[in-house]
């Protein structure tokens, strides 16, 4: 009857009390109870996962003794709907990466990509043992699907599925990626059009200079400035005479 029981939670930022001086503390207050000397936690959440330490000491006089036990609690959580990033369009020969991620699952989820409703194979082996006709690299841990050199054959509808063995797997909505060839003719036509516009502008400026339009404008501006100056001088003289 002289024993003292304490529970603590060991976290990266330090050690905090869970059960101290005969009562629970923190977010376990009101949803945990003692079971001499264990703990029963109701409505567990992912935040309850962690390492707990039970300390039992003898409060009697003389030589107090201390015993402790370490318990690791892992709360299993089914994955949430992942967020997928799929580009709507891409040019052939470029590097394209698709990403898939969800952060609620515990343990962390693994990811599987699908194209047109068919699961994509994971590239395995090296050399002749490598799976043929695979132009991508799929990382099931990080959820990335990487095309080092995307082709028109990679056009299709993609979605990703997250699973961790707890509950049902979750998938994101289907997104289409369209891969097209680089329109070289269109680029050349645009460059030629811009060059023609610049040439016409240059010819226009040259023609205007040859006809003396800029010189006439400068002469007219000087005349206006001269008249303004003469009027100011006249007013100044008139004021002086008065």
UniProtKB/TrEMBL annotation:
Entry's Gene Ontology cellular component terms: bicellular tight junction; cell surface; plasma membrane; protein complex involved in cell adhesion
GO biological process, one term: leukocyte cell-cell adhesion
Main location: other
Keywords of this entry: Cell junction, Cell membrane, Disulfide bond, Immunoglobulin domain, Membrane, Signal, Tight junction, Transmembrane, Transmembrane helix
Protein name: Junctional adhesion molecule B isoform X2
InterPro entries to which the protein is assigned, alphabetical: Ig-like_dom, Ig-like_dom_sf, Ig-like_fold, Ig_sub, Ig_sub2, JAM2
Pfam families in the record: Ig_3
Location relative to the cell: Cell junction, Tight junction; Cell membrane
Keyword Nucleotide-binding: no
Gene: JAM2
Family: Belongs to the immunoglobulin superfamily.
Residues annotated as domain Ig-like: 1-72, 79-180
SMART domains to which the protein is assigned, alphabetical: IG, IGc2
Alphabetized PANTHER family for the sequence: JUNCTIONAL ADHESION MOLECULE B
Record's bilayer topology term: Single-pass type I membrane protein
Regions that span the bilayer: 186-208
